[in-house]
Amino acid sequence: MWLWILLALIAAIIYLVLTSYNSLQRKAHDIKESLSNISVSISKKVNLINQLMDVVRGYQESEQLTHLTVVKETGMNAIYSSYQDSNMMLTNLQGMAERYPDLKADQQYHRLITNIEQCEHEISQWRNEYNARVKAYNSHRSSIPTIFVANGMGFSEAPYLDLTIENAEQTILKDFKMDDGERLNALFKSAKDNIVDGSKALASTSKVVLDKAADTSKKIASSEQVQGIVDKANVYMGKPSTTKFFYLLSDSTPKGPVKIEEIIMLAEDPNWVEQVRLSEVGTEQWMSFEEWTTLHTQPTLQLQQRDI
């Protein structure tokens, strides 16, 4: 019974762990997805700024301009650095356009500026979605029992993203971490080993208890007192008895010992019934067949008649 209780408890714990783990994984992937969308939009903005830089060079080749590097990482620091670099370069290019009226009036210049503004709007939308998902994730992570699973599986608290310069210190945080499956596999392996060890120990203990109970039962069953009780119970239940008897006829010496079933068979002879005297083994009392029948076989006969 204790084994079943232990297994049920382990199953309940595993269910809670898996449920919490799956919900954390799902919300963590949502955060990663939003962060990836931000990275894509920033990369798009960087490409447009590089194109704008080429337009500016066409009007003033003496300007020392170097293309920005397109961000390929989705880490918090890489995204923040790329975004700030693109903003500073855009500010410089717009300042140059103020010094060159023809550049400021260029249609391609205006088209690129418009596209960059659209990218900025996309980045803002993705950032809002990212922060909303971070809020939902952190709230779920801090609940019980999810927080125990999160700490055990390496799900760190997700940082909010603010791309403004004045919040640079708050923005550059540790990258968001989530479980890659290794810790979950290690947990299952540990749980499996514990279950096997616990089952073996419980089985060993149960075997010892059962062996002791069997030995005790054998000792009790072998006692003469209990054997007598068993014999009487067998008679009442219509089962063969182990009690034996001597029988004595008027012209012979005592014979036996014989079982009760043999006496009943001999009693089929009316002459034998009239002459016989019976005595139970271990006693010195002799009785007639009628007395013996009342004492030893009446319960059996009554039971047989009732069954009929």
From TrEMBL:
Q: Name one GO cellular component term.
A: membrane
Q: How does it sit in the membrane?
A: Single-pass membrane protein
InterPro entries linked to this entry = LemA-like_dom_sf, MamQ_LemA
**Which UniProt keywords are present, listed alphabetically?**
Membrane, Transmembrane, Transmembrane helix
Where is this protein localized, as stated in its record? Membrane
Per the record's keyword annotation, is Metal-binding included, yes or no? no
Give the range the annotation lists for the signal sequence. Answer: none
Primary location class = membrane
Q: Identify the Gene3D superfamilies for this entry.
A: LemA-like domain
**Pfam families, sorted:** LemA
Family to which the UniProt record says this protein belongs? Belongs to the LemA family.
- Protein name, entry field: LemA family protein
Species this protein is from: Acinetobacter towneri
